[in-house]
Design brief:
247 residues; mainly alpha; Annexin V, domain 1; two-stranded antiparallel sheet; 4 strands; 68% helix; 3% strand; elongated
Length: 247
């Protein structure tokens, strides 16, 4: 509680830019505890200013009944007026009023939610999406269409998969394939060297039970490789979530 009160005091004496810097250095659990008593709209506006990884950690630590509500508002809070931000913090109101009272600040949107989901483990992602199905079905559908999953990689053409596989270690790939259907495994084996394919097949045969969270972590690491390759201009992902094409 003392940490939460200290965080509140820092936020109240900071500008919006300072606030984001402060939160970036704070423990996600402390922030989640602090936000757990706040209105979902207030939480969403502030979290939407943070980096996706930290946002996902905080959302995952919020009370379960708050998680989907916050996600909805992050997706919907595409732009926020200074007046709304002013309601969150008196100091922030003064900072934004000095900007003329008409500027609007990009803080959230569906893209922010999709980036956040890329850092969530599959079980939490599924729970939030299932809740969104009940609270806001159209939004849940839009988010699902934009999410790029491990299985989506193998809907791409062979040349693209080969480029991706060259950036992934055999150990990570083996663990990621543990729960993959046979058609995904077959496509992977066709796009790596025969020696690597045989080694992975042998490792999969002798691999004992593993935690699902470890498999999902390995799959997430590969997805991050794909996203990094896209950022670096090495590959282009068109139309995430459906008939994606990587060239």
């Amino acid at each position: 509680m003392q940490k939460a009160e200290s965080l509140l005091q820092e936020l109240r004496t900071s500008s919006i830019g300072d606030m984001v810097d402060i939160l970036a250095t704070m423990d996600s659990k402390t922030i989640a505890n602090f936000f757990s008593q706040e209105h979902p709209q207030t939480i969403a506006v502030i979290l939407a200013k943070l980096k996706p990884k930290q946002t996902s950690e905080i959302v995952g630590l919020l009370p379960q009944e708050l998680q989907a509500e916050v996600v909805i508002r992050i997706a919907e809070v595409d732009q926020v007026s200074p007046e709304i931000l002013a309601e969150i913090d008196e100091v922030i109101r003064k900072e934004l009023t000095a900007l003329g009272g008409v500027q609007r600040f990009k803080v959230g949107g569906v893209e922010k939610v999709v980036d956040m989901f890329s850092y969530l483990d599959r079980s939490k992602e599924k729970k939030i999406l299932d809740r969104l199905d009940a609270l806001n079905p159209p939004l849940a559908e839009v988010i699902r269409k934009h999410l790029f999953t491990f299985e989506d990689i193998f809907k791409l053409d062979d040349r693209a998969i080969q480029s991706i596989m060259r950036e992934v270690s055999n150990d990570t790939l083996t663990l990621a394939m543990k729960t993959s259907p046979d058609d995904v495994k077959d496509k992977i084996f066709r796009n790596i060297s025969s020696r690597a394919a045989e080694m992975i097949k042998e490792d999969l045969e002798v691999m004992g039970p593993v935690r699902l969270s470890d498999v999902e972590k390995a799959q997430s690491e590969i997805i991050k490789v794909v996203r990094k390759m896209e950022e670096d201009g090495k590959v282009v992902i068109a139309g995430r979530g459906g008939d994606d094409v990587l060239v």
